[in-house]
Write a structure and sequence with these properties.
single chain; about 325 residues; mainly alpha
Amino acid sequence: MADNKTDVKLFVKRILQLVVSVGGFAYIFYKIPLASVVDNWSLGMTPWVLATLVAANLTMIIQANRWKGLSVQGPEIPFKTYYAFTAMGYFFNNLLPTGFGGDAVKSLAFGKKFNQTSQSVSAVFLARIQGLLAMFLCFFAALPFALNKAEIPFIYTVIMTIALLVCTAIVVLCLFSDKVPIPEIVLKKLTFIPKLQKSLSIYRQHKKQVLLSSLDSLWLQFLAVFMTFAYFKAVGQSIDISILVVFTYITTIVSMLPISLNGIGVREGIQVALFTGILGIPAPVVLSAGLLGYFPLVFQAIQGAIVLVASKKQA
């Protein structure tokens, strides 16, 4: 009975998220006709779109390298395997509604195949949090320069500060989780927790790997900003880099809120609110740039689909 109630709640949640995503898109295109968006696209944007695909591939390579570096126990596994499972994660990220679902799928599938589930899950989880901390570092480094050039509502700084504090607390908890007492009633239901705690605490003895993965996380943030820069250059817009950094990460954080399917509909709305509402860039131009972001997502998901088909043929 409890499982049925959980399934119903999850189904209702997904329906509400779908409504928000579809409603968000419908409202945006009601206010901004699709024809005015498409008018900003031309063959001239092709080099910039191709550049985003290259950046998307580099992103996957660095993520696979970061994951491999954090896999400090178990057998030596080839880099191409980490890359394949990273691609698989992107495929499921575009199917599952949280934007994090791919992380769970790839880490569990990898762990099951190589019999190291707890390390696989802990490595992917730690890498994700490191990525967020690197993002906040870039955000707060760029924020003073951006504030000198644009009037950015203070609420956005508050949101990012709260998110930073939460991520910092999670990292500390990850590294020292083995020292946190867990109630027996919880351990009986979640028997994997002690193994996960042990896997996370091991990183205290692997400071070099944690440092190198942090550097990888910074490279990933630079690529994310470059991709946003390329989207706007593709539609003929040049934006100050500090503002671009701040707006890119505000959009990322707001899109992570579990109120829509993978941020669809919300992402586009916040981009228009920032780039049009604050910078005055025409909304059709902003939306045309934002929609280009789906090209690298599809490119990454296709690679994941190829990995899935290949793995089924080998099974």
